[in-house]
Design brief:
By secondary structure, the protein is an all-alpha fold. The chain has one domain. α8 packs across α15 and α14 packs antiparallel against α15.
Length: 252
């Protein structure tokens, strides 16, 4: 009879989920998480009802509501991720984590899944907005599902970038400022095409690296496989770079 390899018993998803549960429990005591959650709900509602003026639009569409998500994520994502690695590094607990029987991918995925869980909870809290508007028009469920799918993919890519920047920072303030500046750049870089008369290849490059640009098809209720692949591949790239940073810290 074959004995089970202990390394296979403790497979990566189980360890990552255990770390994610630890991170979520720690985040439940962080006032900043509750504060940014309230900010996200207020900002998206004000954006939709007052800035985009939903009630005088003349059309029943949630596209203006979801168009505010990339702007909100510029501040929401840094608050969620700023503590993940920067605080571990500041307090010295990252050295303890690196001595435990976890791989770099275990640690990074645990941080990522906990951050994604927080963001998913924020998105769930926005569901009452479209539900309350259903009696006012004929909204298509498929379109709403597409918009939320895009918001989650956009958030996953932004979170992985925020975690990478947090691993490169020495404290929470630096992680927040660095993530906010970089996210503002990658969210709004496509707007340069509307401001300046950029050459074709430069404009295409700006659109390619812009997270908000790839979210536009989802905000219209269209699930574009190319945009979905961009979010997934970019998230995997940032997570991979995060593991390299952690590996460097481990052996330096």
């Amino acid at each position: 009879m074959k004995t089970q390899n202990p390394d296979k018993r403790n497979f990566l998803p189980r360890r990552a989920l255990a770390l994610a549960a630890r991170e979520l429990y720690s985040s439940s005591y962080a006032p900043a998480v509750y504060g940014i959650g309230v900010f996200f709900l207020i900002f998206t509602s004000v954006w939709f009802f007052y800035v985009q003026r939903f009630f005088v639009m003349g059309s029943a569409s949630l596209r203006p509501y979801f168009s505010g998500f990339p702007l909100a994520f510029i501040l929401v994502i840094p608050v969620i991720t700023m503590k993940s690695w920067a605080e571990e590094r500041k307090t010295g607990s990252v050295e303890l984590l690196l001595t435990m029987p976890f791989s770099e991918w275990d640690l990074v995925l645990g941080k990522f899944l906990s951050s994604l869980g927080i963001l998913s909870f924020f998105l769930v809290l926005t569901v009452p907005v479209p539900l309350s508007l259903i009696p006012l028009g004929r909204f298509q469920a498929g379109v709403i599902v597409s918009e939320y799918t895009g918001a989650l993919l956009l958030g996953a890519s932004a979170l992985s970038l925020g975690l990478l920047l947090s691993s490169l920072s020495k404290n929470q303030a630096g992680a927040f400022l660095g993530s906010a500046v970089v996210l503002m750049a990658v969210m709004l870089v496509s707007q340069l095409n509307f401001t300046f008369n950029l050459p074709g290849f430069i404009g295409n490059f700006c659109n390619f690296i812009s997270l908000a640009f790839h979210f536009e098809s989802f905000s219209r209720g269209i699930i574009d496989s190319r945009d979905g692949a961009f979010f997934i591949l970019s998230a995997l790239l940032f997570l991979f770079l995060n593991t390299r940073v952690i590996l460097f810290r481990k052996w330096s």
